[in-house]
Amino acid sequence: MDILHILLVVTGTGKYPNRDLKTGLWLSEFTHIYHGAKEKGYSITVASPQGGGIPIDPVSLKPIYLDKLSRNYWNDPKFRDMLCHTKSLKEVSGQLFNFVYLAGGHGSMFDFPDNLALQTIIKNHYEDNKKVGAICHGVCGLLHVKLSSGQYLIKGKKLTGFSWVEEILAGRSKVVPFNLEAALKERGSDYSKSLIPMIPKVVVDGNLITGQDPFSSKKMAEIVLRQMAGNQKD
Fold first, then answer.
1. CA 185 vs CA 55, 158, 192: distances in Å
2. What angle do CA 173, 176, 181 make, to 5 degrees?
3. Cα 167 to Cα 214: distance, rounded to the nearest angstrom
4. Are 63 and 31 in contact (CB under 8 A)?
5. What is the reported pLDDT for 198?
6. pLDDT of the chain along its 234 residues, tens only?
7. Which of 3, 4, 10, 182 has its CA 20 to 30 A from that of 232?
């Protein structure tokens, strides 16, 4: 049986521009999919826009958000060292993976949307009938992706992502560069969210899988891995 390959894309932005406020990768949105893929014996590549070290959003390390699995990984020196040596998106742009996964964290709002290498990776994989997943703010990496037809990938697609109500509750509505929920709708996507904020929600539309928020991390990982296993059997 061939080994499946998964690309985990993470932000490299650790600070809000012009503000003394830290951000970065939301840890659980990475650890759950990383753990599941590792358990399955999949080949894992971690890449960020510029490569190198990855900042972690300090809020995601607070006890209320840091679940047991994420805490165990955070306390693992080898895991922490791995996050210090990510590849750049340009380095991996010519490779083909079985799944491309965009993790979130507010940092992604600054270095995902306009990254041409990321747009190309997503376009090429989606058009090659590979699966693409994104969770929370990582969904912003889908906003500007155009297919060969010239149409935006997310036009008419069912998806989810961090809602504006959640942004307000998180106290970040005045510092984020744009309203993700509104931007997704403006692109013509069929956006939906859970009736109650901070409740797990994952939406699958063909080869596109999206998760709403950090609380969707475990469910998102389970669905992604199930889909990958299904492909392996085909």
1. 29, 10, 9
2. 70
3. 12
4. no
5. 86
6. 489 999 999 999 999 998 899 999 999 999 999 999 999 999 999 999 999 999 999 999 999 999 999 999 999 999 999 999 999 999 999 999 999 999 999 999 999 999 999 999 999 999 999 999 999 999 999 999 999 999 999 999 999 999 999 999 999 999 999 999 999 999 999 999 999 988 999 999 999 999 999 999 999 999 999 999 886 543
7. 10
- In the chain, count of helices (H) and strands (E)? 9, 9
Query: DSSP secondary-structure letter at 200?
Result: -
Q: Which amino acid is at 196?
A: I
Sheet with strand 131-135: strands edge to edge: 87-88, 43-48, 5-9, 99-102, 131-135, 208-211, 202-205
Q: Distance (Å, rounded) from C-alpha 118 to C-alpha 127?
A: 14
Specify the DSSP element, H or E, that contains 132.
strand 131-135
pLDDT tens digits, one per residue of 48-77? 999 999 999 999 999 999 999 999 999 999
The helix-helix angle for 217-233 and 28-40 (nearest 10°) equals: 30
